[in-house]
Amino acid sequence: MAQYGKTNYWDERYTKDPEPFDWYQRYSGVRDLINQYVKREDVILMSGCGNSRLTEDMFEDGYTSITNIDVSRVCVDQMLERYRDKPTLQWQQMNACSLDFPDETFDVVLDKGTLDSVLCGEGSTANVAKMCGEVSRVLKPNGCFFIVSYGVPDNRLNYLEKEDVYSWNVTVHTVPKPTVSAAAVPSSEDSNGVHYVYVCTKGGSAEEG
Question: Alpha-carbon distance 66 to 78, whole Å?
Fold first, then answer.
């Protein structure tokens, strides 16, 4: 199995294949949900951005204040070069489990596959707790953590539904998988026809929709 939890795996992957690649969903597949939770003027952190087109597609749709982080220096350097004509898009090498941002910096943290990758690595439970703690710290009041995942609620909510720790409530949505599923991760969890979107909003109570 690919070592999704290791930085050197990603550096090697982006070196060998610098072409844009979107895990799970393109923007078109999650656009309606993003529009429901994210305002055009929001200050956004794209956690584990990879070389996805998601930031570019959102930028073209009016979301212009996006800071993108990835653990891979190779990837970040490629994206800096690719989008150097878009100065409101920021690109930084950073570990999602240890964010170098002040408290309450962002209205929204977007994650498409990053939580899943952390869960593939060693010490996954502790690292997911660090990641969620950091997201909660950098989110403004009423901000949201928007996660696109292949993981089913019975599993992922064990990590996310800790309101006393992270000060958020979780709403679960589903989106159909693209008909071409080449970007899907083979997994026993991934046997149905949907991806899951977990929206963690500061305050409130858990619900499923």
Answer: 17
| Amino acid in position 30 | V
**170-195: per-residue pLDDT in tens?**
999 999 998 754 455 544 444 578 99
Sequence-ordered list of residues with C-beta below 8 angstroms from that of 68, at least 6 positions apart, any chain: 45, 46, 49, 55, 76, 79, 89, 90, 91, 92
DSSP conformation class of 186: P
Tokens of 55: 């930031």
pLDDT digit string, tens, across residues 51-83: 999 999 999 999 999 999 999 999 999 999 999
Q: pLDDT digits over 37-48, tens only?
A: 999 999 999 999
Interacting residues of 77 by C-beta distance below 8 A, sequence separation 6+:
none
**Distance (Å, whole) CA 60 – CA 52:** 14
d(CA 201, CA 146) in angstroms, rounded, equals 9
Residue pair 112/148 in contact by the 8 Å Cβ criterion: yes
Q: What's the confidence (pLDDT) of residue 46?
A: 97
The answer to whether the predicted template modeling score (pTM) of the entire model surpasses 0.90 is no
Residue 38, H or E segment: none
